[in-house]
Amino acid sequence: MSALEMSQSLLRHVDGSLEELRQCEIEALTLNGLGKVQALTLLAALETGFRARECFRTPKTLEEALVQVMQSLSSMDRETFFVIPLDLRNRCIGFPIALSKGSRYQVVVDPKDVLHAAISRKAGRVGVVHNHPSQDVQPSPQDLLLTKQLMEACAWVDIEFLDHWIVTKKEKFSFRENGLLD
Length: 182
Fold this sequence. Notes:
This protein is of the alpha+beta class. The protein has two domains: 3-55, no CATH class; 62-174, Cytidine Deaminase, domain 2 (3-Layer(aba) Sandwich). The protein is built from seven helices and five strands. It has a five-stranded mixed beta sheet, sandwiched between helices. A hairpin with a 4-residue loop joins strand 4 (160-167) and strand 5. Helix 6 (111-120) packs across helix 7.
């Protein structure tokens, strides 16, 4: 039996559902003509594909984008700054943008670059996120200054600045929730 015939047979067995094929036991796959190693390889490939699909799925909401960015930032050992462009209904416009990477203790961000990222996506709102690999979630004086500059720059071009979040592996700090955007 050719590889094409084998795959067609397997898909018929699960009514064409890759999700159902992913849930199959190795024994069920070997009964359908695969060897044990082939069955394990198939299941590993399916699992990898399903996980990759979730990782690379464009977030729809701000909350989804934050989760995606926080997952990306949790393993980084250098400060990295993301811009999350949104429309006026808080729907993400594409993937969050990794704007700048810095050192372990700082990242340099020009407000013009944040505005360019937001304007190029025709965003009506924007949020920004960066990590602190030091695991200290408190904003630095530079973080406070940048946030003030971003709020002012966004106001000039009529883009609503939603929030600036600082994340570590275990915590998230919101400038808005802590009264620093007033």
